[in-house]
Structures are given as structure tokens and as C-alpha cells.
Amino acid sequence: MSSRNNTNRIKIHRSYTAMDVSETLGVHPKTVRNWIRAGLPVIDEARPLLIQGADLKLYLQQKRKTYLHRCELNEMFCFKCKRPKEPSIDSVEFIAKPGGMAQMTGRCYECGQWANKYVSWRDVNQIWTELGGKLPIAEKHLILRGQKPLNYPLAKVFNDEKK
Ligand SMILES: [Zn+2]
Description:
It contains five helices and eight strands; from the N terminus they run βααβαβββββαβα. It is α+β, with helices and mostly antiparallel strands.
């Protein structure tokens, strides 16, 4: 990753192909495909793959934060405490995103500051149990926003857990 991807050039209401992203940010198209493989959400699985500007911006901002401050799976970076912190379990929500991803949000258990990060649906159960939660996750902690999780429907997540 170049040291300063200019996220200000990304328009949050636009959708981008990998080539558009490459041209907008001045990175190799291969780099964009690697980001998608590493968890950059895509709008759906139709070709060409489209990336929502807002998702791209958040992904790159988070990528930079993660790089600067390594968090465990169940931690998020708290900007008040200035370190990775677990969220309080009551505040945690997993918001479905396309491409098998979820946005995890919650309040720092220590200071109450809201934080969020992108995680894979595959990791949601593990994060939840590491925070001390019991499975299955109560529905109030899961927000589907009218979208079906594409790659990891909840039923499958729960089935995987039983194996
Ligand atoms: Zn905090």
C-alpha cells in the first residue's frame, strides 16, 4: 500500500469498478483485487465487481488504523483510550454488509466511546464468544438492513459452529 492513499478523492455515493479504484487512487489493479480478497466489500457478485465509495473509504481508513494499531479479533481501536479495547458486549452490533462481511460496532468497555471495524461473517460467532457471549447471538445484536448476507447466511454461520 502506498503510504498515503488519498481517500479524499473517493466519492461515497459513487460505485467503482476495480479499474476505477486503480485510477482514482493511483494503485495497481492487482492491489485492488487483493483488497477485495482481504475483505473490501463488493456490492454484489455480478461482474464487473462494483465497490461502493463509502465502503472503500471506510475500508482504507480502517486498514490504516489496523496497520498502526493492531487489534485482536474481538478488539476495536478506541480513539479516546488511544489503544485497542474490547467493546462492552451489550453495545455490540454486527451489521450485514455484502460480500460476506459485517461491520462491527460497539462502545469501548472502559470509556464508552463508539468504535467500529469490518469483520468477516465467518468470524462473528468467534468474536461474540470471545467477548463472553453465548450462541446463538441474540437478534438485537444483528442488523441485516434488508440485505441478505451473500456468502455466509446466518443459518450457515450457526451450522458451522455445530460441526
Ligand atoms: Zn475507550
